[in-house]
Structure formats: structure tokens, C-alpha cells
Amino acid sequence: MGWPFKLHGGVAAGLGAVLLLLATLTWLPGALPLTDVRWLTAASFVSLFLAFASALVRLVLTGADKHAIWLAFRCLPGKVQMALGALALWGVVLTVFSTATEGNLQSAEVRDGRYVAFDTTPYARGTVEISQSRYQDVLESDQRAVLAIPGVLFLGAAYAVLAAGELRRADGAVVPSDVA
């Protein structure tokens, strides 16, 4: 596999791991210092789009089916498979737990000195006033989802680009029968 595939896959996996680590840190006690950082969310989504779109293009250009892609991933070193698998599992667990524990409140904000959040309860949707501690909980829950979901998608991009690189390496090693 060429170094561009390794670099692309490594950067995608690294960014995914960093986002999952930040999402995990939201469960620590105390206020999360990243709740007011809007540029982090924008930067993660822009870089996710670039990494994921280019990984899908690389995968489509191989012309392989799902089974061949899986077999190509299985040809990667065991440590790479284990690391991507463990990170992806942790990301899925984080995402499931964050959606299961966040309740019906989301999009917390401060309006006129009061803490409010959007309540998504069926037949009672609307903005409700909440306490400051509940406000912090809703902020951290929202931040956890905003960090965990792109983290998992970055890992998916790493899987796609590394499998595409392995397919390309395997295709380059095949010698056509009429050339010999």
C-alpha cells in the first residue's frame, strides 16, 4: 500500500480517536471547557467531509464489492485491525450511551439570564426553563454527541481508505496472463 493511503488512513483514524477522547472527557465531573468552542465543531465537520468524501472516492475507484473490501481490510496488519475495531466499538458505545442518557432535552442556552432547553417530549415539544446544573448536563450531552458521531465517521473513513489502499496494492501485484 502506498504512503498516501497510509497517511490518509492514519490522519482519519487519529482525528477519530481525538474526537472520541474528547467525547469521553465529557463524562468527567465539572464543566467541560469545550462547550463554547464553535470552531471545533465546524473544523471537525469540514475535515470530516473532506476525509470521508475522498475515502469514498478512493473506495469507489477500486470497483470492488463489499466482500472484497472486507477481505482487503482483513489483509491489514492485526494491530491496525484491532485498533480500528476497538475505536469503532468505543465510538458506537459512546454514541448509544449518549443518546440513551440525554433524555428529552437538547440545545441548552441562556436567554435573558435564564437557562432554557428544547424539550422533545412527544405532544409537549417546546422550550422549557431548566436549572443551571441541568443546563450543564444538557450542554455536555449535546457536546458528547457532536464529538462522538464525527469520531465514528472518521474511523469509517480510515477503514475505507486503508481497505482501498490494500485493494490497490493487491491489484498492482497481479500480472495479466497475456503479458507473460
* Strand elements, count: 3
Walk across the major sheet and give the strand order: 1-2-3
Largest sheet: 3 strands, antiparallel
Order of helices and strands: HHHHEEEH
In brief:
This protein is mainly alpha-helical and 180 residues long. The chain is built from 5 helices and 3 strands; from the N terminus they run H-H-H-H-E-E-E-H. The protein has helices at residues 3-25, 38-62, 66-74, 78-101, 132-173; strands spanning 105-111, 114-119, 126-130.
Structure characterization notes:
- The protein has a three-stranded antiparallel β-sheet with strand order 1-2-3, with helices on one face.
- It is elongated.
- Helix 1 (3-25) packs antiparallel against helix 2, helix 2 (38-62) packs parallel to helix 5 and helix 4 packs antiparallel against helix 5.
- The mean pLDDT is 81.
- It is mainly alpha-helical and 180 residues long.
- It has helices spanning 3-25, 38-62, 66-74, 78-101, 132-173; strands spanning 105-111, 114-119, 126-130.
- 68% of the residues lie in helices and 10% in strands.
Task: Write a concise keyword list for the protein shown above.
180 residues, three-stranded antiparallel β-sheet, 5 helices, 68% helix
Tell me the layout of helices and strands:
Blueprint: H1 3-25, H2 38-62, H3 66-74, H4 78-101, E1 105-111, E2 114-119, E3 126-130, H5 132-173
Antiparallel strand pairs: 1-2, 2-3
Helix pairs in contact: 1-2, 1-4, 1-5, 2-5, 3-5, 4-5
